[in-house]
Design brief:
five-stranded mixed β-sheet, 12 strands, globular, about 35% helix, alpha/beta, Nucleotidyltransferase, domain 5, about 375 residues
Amino acid sequence: MPETGFQTANDGAALHAIGLMSGTSLDGVDAAVIRTDGERILATGRSATLFYEEPLRARLRALLDAAPGLAADDPELRALDRLLADRHAEAVAMVASRADVVGFHGQTILHDPDRRRTWQIGDAAHLAHKTRLKVVHDFRGADVAAGGQGAPLAPLFHAALAAALEKPLLVVNIGGVANITWLGPRGEVLACDTGPGNGPLDDWVRLRTGAAFDADGAMAAAGRVDQARLARLMDDPWFARPAPKSLDRLHFSPRLAHAMEGLSAEDGAALLASFTAASIAAAPLPAPPLRVLVAGGGRHNAAIMDALRRHFAAPVEPVEAAGWDGDALEAQCFGFLAVRALRGLPLSLPETTGVPAPLAGGRIVRPGPEAE
């Protein structure tokens, strides 16, 4: 959706929101301004990305491995809580001229809904203090506590974005983990995580070359997919679970460690790109989509996009083909969800996270004096 400014008729209930998203790819903070009443998207504004410096990215990646046994008062965790809030405050400053609320997702370091645990770090009170704005955070906690998967949370935002588009429509988001939103012609919404996104591929490329990611999918495109290894990866029991379902970024790590043995850098990248696409194509859908729109960093990976086109009969396009801003989409989503949270509207549904009933969520922090 292009920038449209903020002069929109009949939007008296709408608020200016700044959404912030730091995904499991660990590359930085996306920030975006949106005007919404929590049901309609009335306008979008500026967006920007603040990239993490490599030492911070390395510290966050180490925290993912340590998270299952990490204590809440761990000194490194507390230091990163504050540092992440500072970086998110910088991202707010990059986009904000004025705003009513900030939607602060935080950085996920653990997601284990089967044990009713989801953990996003980042000091929301410090962010509110730094920005002098109301901050909505902890978007997933209530859902997981109620027995939901806590993810994905974008489907209601996707439904608002796609209100005028022909259905059935499939929206695919490929971040560190991949997820889908299926939108039906009668207002139906179904969503789930599908499997790995860019996370394992990024880790592989960094390990083998030192680069942060496979730029444009060039390494994957130069490799050959070992179909037997791909079949073993797709044999993970998680794929047999019905939707809605979600997973942690590192869920496949033990299986991948075995599958990647002996592969060249290019063949490993090709296998991981194909694993991402095959996982998405294997997601259970009520009906085939007429169109597939792809968001997230994975839409820039030509190997993943080519593989998706082989799996789907419908056109597979980046979300820009629908007029949406793929680089700002997730951040816009959390601005949208922040306004829904302020209004007490549901953030998740039984069909999107498996929560027993439509459920509101998010916690609100207001700016105030900060304790030393």
